[in-house]
Write a structure and sequence with these properties.
The strands form 2 sheets. A 5-stranded mixed beta sheet has the order 2-4-5-7-6. A two-stranded antiparallel ribbon has the order 1-3. The protein is globular and about 60 Å long. It is of the alpha+beta class and 235 residues long. The chain has 2 domains: 3-75; 83-234, Heat Shock Protein 90, CATH 3.30.565.10. It has helices at residues 3-41, 48-75, 87-104, 124-139, 197-207, and strands at residues 83-85, 108-113, 120-122, 147-157, 160-169, 210-217, 221-229. The N and C termini lie far apart (52 Å). Helix content is 48%, strand content 21%. Bound molecules: adenosine-5'-triphosphate and magnesium ion. Magnesium ion (MG) is lined by residues 133, 136-137, 193, 197.
């Protein structure tokens, strides 16, 4: 057996181990989330301190659920079930979820969504996970501006119609020498990052014939964009 065979075997084992770990964590986590939802509903009946405590638990649980979802998307091969998705609707859900995180670092997520875009074939929850990952990165980019921008628009790309979705920040940007690393599994420059966000985005998007790319200037900001290649019969 060659060294690369041994490494592949180890990686496969690691993949299986994390998949089963994620599976085991998921159930108690959902139970926790359900109980917290109940506590949130009765928040007005408890003291301000207790209400704050419930809010913190909720945030931590949401973060955990998000990480678990990334791990699960990373290790699983998907069934490739598709449904017709409206990119703007999913974007609005993502922005709604992220707006409160953004406001904690004094940021506002400004949207500019072209109306009446054609629908794309995707899985809504996977598309949401992609948007959440990219918007999260933009929020975490140590912005100097007080806004980040999320846009969607239809464009003619080499004679083919393509929907572009993009998120732009005016943050720290990415150094030239780091640009080739950012899509590597587990690459992170953050203290609390897992380095899976972009890997998961790339994997999910390529499964659905969409492409992820970026432009970035160190200390100026970054723009991550997705190209959704349209199925001609939908146009
Ligand atoms: N908008 C951005 N601005 C600057 N750097 C970015 C941006 N998006 C990604 N990066 C760089 O790419 C790295 C990998 O991103 P990725 O989303 O995969 O992992 P992470 O954000 O570090 O952790 P996780 O997403 O798992 O919490 C980041 O650590 C950061 O160095
Ligand atoms: Mg990330």
């Amino acid at each position: 057996m060659s060294n690369s065979d041994i490494l592949n075997n180890k990686l496969q084992l690691l993949g299986k181990l994390s998949a089963s770990l994620v599976h085991e964590i998921r159930n108690p986590l959902f139970a926790l989330k359900l109980n917290l939802d109940y506590l949130t509903n009765i928040r007005s009946q408890v003291s301000e301190d207790a209400a704050e405590s419930i809010r913190s638990c909720e945030e931590a649980t949401d973060r955990l659920m998000f990480i678990i979802q990334n791990f699960s998307d990373f290790t699983k091969n998907h069934s490739l079930e598709t449904e017709l998705c409206c990119i703007n609707d999913v974007t609005k859900v993502a922005v709604n979820i992220m707006q409160s995180n953004a406001s904690k670092v004094n940021l506002y997520i400004q949207t500019d969504l072209q109306p009446n875009l054609p629908a794309v074939y995707f899985q809504k929850d996977k598309l949401l996970q992609v948007f959440l990952n990219l918007i999260t990165n933009a929020i975490e980019a140590e912005n100097t501006n007080d806004k980040i921008f999320v846009r969607s628009y239809l464009k003619n790309n080499n004679g083919k119609k393509v929907i572009f979705w993009e998120v732009e920040d005016y943050g720290i940007g990415i150094k030239t020498e780091d640009k080739e690393k950012i899509f590597d599994d587990f690459y992170t420059s953050k203290k609390q990052g897992t380095g899976l966000g972009l890997s998961v985005c790339k994997k999910l998007l390529s499964e659905y014939n969409a492409e992820l790319d970026f432009e970035s200037h160190y200390k100026k900001g970054s723009k991550f964009f997705i190209k959704f290649n349209l199925n001609e019969k939908l146009l």
